[in-house]
Amino acid sequence: MDFTQVIQAFPSLGNGLLLTLELTVLAVIGGVIIGTALALARLSSIRVLSWLAGFYVNYFRSIPLLLVITWFYFIVPFMVGWVTGTNQPIGAFTSCLIAFMMFEAAYFCEIVRAGIQSISKGQVNAAYALGMTYPQAMRLVVLPLAFRKMTPLLLQQSIILFQDTSLVYAVGMMDFLNVARSQGDITGELHTFLLFAGLVYFVISFGASTLVKRLQKRLTV
Amino acid sequence: MIRFSNVDKWYDREHHVLKNINLKVNVGEVVVVCGPSGSGKSTLIRTINQLEPVERGEIWVDEVQVNNPRTNINRIREEVGFVFQHFNLYPHLSVLDNITLAPIKVKKLAPAVARERALELLNRVGLAHKRDAYPANLSGGQQQRVAIARGLAMQPKVMLFDEPTSALDPEMIGEVLQVMQDLAKSGMTMMVVTHEMGFAREVADRVIFLDHGEILEDTQPEWFFTRPQHERSRQFLRQVLAPMHG
Predict the structure, then answer these.
(1) Is there a single domain that holds both residue B145 and residue B238?
(2) pLDDT tens digits for range B121-153
(3) Which domains, ranges and CATH numbers included, belong to chain A?
(4) Hey, is the C-beta of A219 within 8 angstroms of any chain B C-beta?
(5) CB-CB neighbors (< 8 A) of A131 in chain B
(6) Is A195 in contact with A6 (CB distance < 8 Å)?
(7) Is the CB of A123 inside 8 Å of chain B's CB atoms?
């Protein structure tokens, strides 16, 4: 085992980690936004809307993420070209990001939905009794309360997402794991590099998870 | 101010919870609604701001029929304050923000004005020093007083109280009743669902007794307590007034 090779590869490993984190953060933001919209649609009294959202969630939860990533890699450029009317390549990052957002939205939707349903009817009635409309009650009272309760779950799901971003190797993206592996191949120190990569994933995931548990304790007080 | 004419309500099409309700509350009147649990008294006042829909009849607030589909119910609710048994303050907001939220977002009041008015109201309910506290750090009595201030911040024409002291520890009931009594003295039109017969006797202009969804008595407190007309109201009064450790 020769860790000097790993240290020498720090710049490119750093770039890979940056890409992984960027993808994670953007996918979480997009996923939560789409997921919240889906949750509101699922809880809507408009049947068609709630059925469509339900179908979306069940569909994306029933297919492998790897399939979505490779599928979107081929299909997103067509979709973007069709919408904008131009024929420009959009790059693997964008198509992967969209794939993650849409896939994770299905999971975030279920978390948000449970969060909304956990808010007592009394709180909602109090908002209505003060003359708030449905969107006002949602935006000012229900969603802020629901997100407070859901934050730990949303963060746990985000940690899973962080690990899942390694699947972008399938479309040739140089994320942290893929950089580590290729550096390992080049230097002949694959074991060392993978060991190191594992350590980094563990520290970040476990560290974040511990923070979430601490946050959870504070939020439930 | 408030008028019910021939109002009927059913739950699940078979449980008849309000039976042919006819009722009038005049401006400045304080009306106490009492009756055994399950008599429909909470449902009755919840129909006024349409937290509960009705199946038949008309309910009017001022010159507007609230159960008309063409009525914008949110405009009515701005003018009808409602105080819940379980306070239902917003736990994520401070006391001050609880009070100013609806005036700013619904009535589009300038935040500075809403704030000033909220502080005035907090003074009135004796909780100015708690303005930055969160509901979880207040006692039940304090939460209910904040909830009353929250309702008043919309400058309603009527205040409805749905068992405002039923969820409180006995030693906190007095402070809430005191705030309500002051409010009644200031000329507010009020409808109060409560088991507090002392409050009914001293503060109410009229007492309504409801049983099985029917109004059995609608009379002055004096008459209600001394000469109840129905056997069921006599029985009810014996139960709530009887010394429990006698």
Answers:
(1) no
(2) 999 999 999 999 999 999 999 999 999 999 999
(3) 4-219 (1.10.3720.10)
(4) no
(5) 74-75, 77-78, 102, 106-107, 154
(6) no
(7) yes
